[in-house]
Amino acid sequence: MAWKAVIARVSSVRRGAAGLARPGVQRCGPPVPRPGRLGGPLAVLVLFLAALAAGAADTCDICGQALPARFLESGGRSFCSQACYRRTLPVCATCGQVVSGRHLVQGGRHYCSDACFERTLPTCALCGKALRESFTVEGRTYCRAHAEGPRCDACSRPVEGGETLADGRVVCAGCRPSLVFDRGEAAELYARARRMLAVALGEALPPAPPLHLVGLDALPEHRGLEAAVSVRELGRYQRETVTTTTRNLFGRVLREETEVSRRILMLYGLPADSFLSTAVHELTHDLLAERYPRFDERAPEWAKEGLCQYTAAVVCRRLGCGDVVAEIENAPDAVYGDGYRWWARRFGPAGWDGIRRWLEQGDGAALPDRAPAPPPR
Ligand SMILES: [Zn+2]
Ligand SMILES: [Zn+2]
Ligand SMILES: [Zn+2]
Ligand SMILES: [Zn+2]
Ligand SMILES: [Zn+2]
């Protein structure tokens, strides 16, 4: 009810103003705004003399009171006072002050100053600068300089300062305390990875190969991996057959002994969940080499790497490491990623019994050079 009444009054004021404005004002001199009240941004207002406003009963568009002898008009609306007029002005979306004159409007919001506008901008997670151009990395916002600068090796986020490891990798202060550098901690995680793998597969593992914590500089190049596959390796299984020949003084061979040496290299400075999944991956290489040599010696690289990723995913699912599992499942490359997905498609997420039978009977050499693509949906 009240709303209807106000609308009616507004339209009557508009009618009066439209009909009278020009001739009326001119007859009584220019409509100079009163100094101190209508200067500056309010200069657009036209001041009316009530005597010329025919509708003496007209009312203020805001408060509804009868218009006094001198009133204000703007945009076809009449106001009894500056205070009522100011109530029609936008307010700064940041500080709430009334905004008038030239000012910034962005996305339908008004801002009294650049400073107030900048307070609405996202800021760089590292330097705190307000960003008119921002970059999102791993769910956080950064300025260009930080987005394009060095990244933490553990969390992949831009890093300021941080710590440079002996092999040149950089880690951020946030990640540093939770990374595995300590040999004792590494040995514990390694033993845990072995236990988890044995339980997940339901079979005893070969004796543990010795574990070595190494830097990136000590991880040898991965032979047999296509150059196009740009995968950051976090560990390596090494296996060598060493033949020792014993001869007598005359050079006659007395004895020949072959010995297999196995070891697992793990990068130092990994987060614990990456360490565990990498250890499971490398331990699976050892299991394949020791127990399923026919497959290990003949299968293409994607089948072996994919299967090691498969067991890592099985263990990580049991550990609740969803991020690592998602990383394995969604790896875009044709060896680790496509390889994993081939095994997962063929045997399901917990299909080690089927895989074991396949490894015992199947022929790794019969697999194609590249992981077969999934059937079209
Ligand atoms: Zn009023
Ligand atoms: Zn403001
Ligand atoms: Zn920055
Ligand atoms: Zn980090
Ligand atoms: Zn591997």
Count of helical regions:
11
Poorly predicted runs of 5 or more residues: 1-56
The tally of domains stands at: 3
Strand arrangement in the largest pleated sheet: 1-2-3
Tell the overall outline: elongated
- The overall average pLDDT, rounded, is 82
Secondary-structure-based class equals: alpha+beta
How far apart, in Å, are the first and last alpha carbons?
61 Å
Biggest sheet record = 3 strands, antiparallel
Helix content: 25-40%
Note the beta-strand portion: 15-25%
List bound small molecules.
zinc ion
Integer-rounded radius of gyration: 38 Å
The H/E string reads HEEEHEEHEEHEEEHEEEEHHHHHH
Total strands: the figure is 14
Commentary on this structure:
This protein is elongated. It has three domains: 2-86, no CATH class; 135-179, no CATH class; 181-222 and 231-366, no CATH class. Mean pLDDT is 82; it is low at 1-56. The strands form six sheets. It has a three-stranded antiparallel β-sheet. Strands 11-13-12 form a three-stranded mixed β-sheet. Strands 4-5 form a two-stranded antiparallel ribbon. With 377 residues, the protein is of the alpha+beta class. Helix 5 (183-201) packs across helix 6 and helix 8 (301-319) packs across helix 10. The two termini are 61 Å apart. It is built from eleven helices and 14 strands. It has helices at 2-27, 82-86, 114-118, 144-147, 183-201, 272-291, 293-298, 301-319, 322-330, 336-347, 352-361; strands at residues 46-49, 70-74, 77-79, 104-106, 109-111, 135-137, 140-142, 163-164, 170-171, 179-180, 211-214, 235-247, 253-267, 270-271. Bound molecules: zinc ion (5 copies). One zinc ion binds at residues 60, 62-63, 65, 79-81, 84.
